Amino acid sequence: MQVTRKLGALAVLLALGAPALALDLNIGYQKSALNLASLKAQGTLEKQLKPLGVEVKWFEFQAGPPLLEAMNAGSVSIGMTGDSPPVFAQAAGADIVYIGQEPAKPESSAILVPANSTIRTLADLKGKRIASTKGSSAHYLTVSALQKAKLSYSDITPVYLSPSEARAAFERGSVDAWTIWDPYYAAAQRAGGVRVLSSGKGLTGNNTFYLAQRAFAKANPKVIDVVFKALTANDKWLKSDVKTVAATLSGYTGLEAATYEAMLARNPSYSVSYLKPAVQQEQQKVADAFYGLGLIPRAIKVVDAFWKP
């Protein structure tokens, strides 16, 4: 109740144009969140939100599922994930809403196999051990690839690992294939010894979403609008000088600049918009696929978690 009153008071003061009560904007991000990561590196949001009485704090996660777990627990206000984490969160009863989206990026995820692997087609995945992060966009890419090959989920052995654990397992030959997203995908390609069995093209839109605690979104549309405008403006910088952007991100995250250059070349747009109607159908397809396989405990209507500012 105390938190709700505080959020509501902030909304009123923002509407009046007055300095607001101090509010923590806890942002969850991943290394794949180029736009958010570069804003953090530049301190842009801090400068824009401080006059409104909003203090920005950043929390890094390896993947979307733990990010949304933290959001549901109240530790993260807004964050960015792929298509599958919010489906699992909603099915588990998390009070989280979709607030925005980036353009689809199907080529930014892939199913990788060792360069000398005998796996040549999606049908060859039958009987194989496939690593991915459970409840991630890579998990859905695996599901979609099996559907296209007319294989059932029981035809493979899924191995659920974090990106770093999956890469280690892949490199030591403990798994036959690895489904992963950028920048881990680009980093693996640069390291060599891998072959792309299939990207997400033709299998998934690989949509990226911005999400928030429902109470936070309801009380703070002004704050969200400031964040989205900053992200949209920053997207122009991401496109303007790829080498400078890549070097900036490399200095901040520790990944090679060339990895970010490859990532930006594969997907040049990270602009942010409010939700578009077409994405609802795509996201419902993701939810229905996971429910049909018994991977989420109940059927859901994703539109119930779509925020309408």
From TrEMBL:
The secretion signal range is 1-22
> In which compartments does the protein localize?
Periplasm
Q: Which stretches are annotated as coiled coil?
A: none
- Record SUPFAM superfamilies: Periplasmic binding protein-like II
The UniProt record lists the Solute-binding protein family 3/N-terminal domain at 24-241
InterPro entries documented for this protein:
ABC_SsuA_sub-bd, Solute-binding_3/MltF_N, SsuA/THI5
Keywords in alphabetical order: Signal, Transport
Organism domain of life: Bacteria
Q: Which family does it belong to?
A: Belongs to the bacterial solute-binding protein SsuA/TauA family.
The protein's matches in NCBIfam families, at most eight in alphabetical order, are given as: PRK11553.1, SsuA_fam
Put simply, this protein is called Sulfonate ABC transporter substrate-binding protein
